[in-house]
Amino acid sequence: MAPRTKKVVRKTRRDQTEISRCIKYLMFGFNILFWILGFMIAAIGIYAWIEKDTFDNFGRLTMGGTLFFDPALLFVLVGIFMFCIGFTGCVGSLRENTCLLLFFSFALAVIFFIQLAFGTLVFIYREKVKNEGEKQLMIMIQSYRDDPDLQNMIDWIQRDWLHCCGVNNYRNWESNVYFNCSSKIVGSVEACGVPASCCRVEYFHNNKQCGYGTLEPSAATHMIYTEGCLPKASHWFERHILPVAIVVAVLAVLQILGICFAQNLRNDILAQKAKWSWHTHPMMNYYRHQ
């Protein structure tokens, strides 16, 4: 009688653990970059905010000022939010913490549905959104000289991005006290004018005062942009609808993948814990000795 040969069973890693290293370290790597980026954005915003007198900004906030439109504050809020999300995803995946992974996936799901609801409401109530946006942009024009960061952002939009002036047209700058014609009484050189960022490129480099006096009834306007930024922005989005749609779709897919990966990793961790609990259960020792 031939001797029995013992069958060799090769154990795979999946027999030992339920946790996928690929998903674990993919989530860790992506979220640590997200974490660092959020920290850097928040640090830039905090530095810029402190440079503009923090306590004065808090006063404007409590008095219902225009702090909401402060680019520095926007950097701070976005940076802190990204930092928190990146922290939970990074530490949760590395330490295999199911609570942090649950918070990470829940936060991404909330963000995704808020964006979806926001986009739907904007599409349904686009006229109301346009009117409200116009009001807020007029407030930003009125606060042009009050906030250096806001001023730089408006200048960038008018001069470098959209090549426009004002909200609907260049005469919207009459609502700013520094550019209103009534400021001639106090001797303002900018009275009845527009900011230098409204000047056309070919005139701006040779004459930084090309916007002065352009709000006069008989003034020539060939040296400045006369079309408003709101219609120009609408035209820009119409021309670039495909790239914008691709970016939105990519962001949505990344969020969905983040939710799926976090839940998959969390389920793997729970399954592994259940396996460990069963192997250490007193009944398991009983069956082993039978």
From TrEMBL:
UniProt cross-references to Gene3D superfamilies, sorted A to Z: Tetraspanin
Protein name: Tetraspanin
Subcellular location: Membrane
Gene Ontology CC terms, in alphabetical order: plasma membrane
Signal sequence range: none
Transmembrane portions of the chain: 21-50, 72-94, 101-125, 241-262
Disulphides: 165-181
Keywords: Disulfide bond, Membrane, Transmembrane, Transmembrane helix
Source organism superkingdom: Eukaryota
Family assignment from sequence similarity: Belongs to the tetraspanin (TM4SF) family.
InterPro entries membership: Tetraspanin/Peripherin (IPR018499), Tetraspanin_animals (IPR000301), Tetraspanin_EC2_sf (IPR008952)
Topology of the protein relative to the lipid bilayer: Multi-pass membrane protein
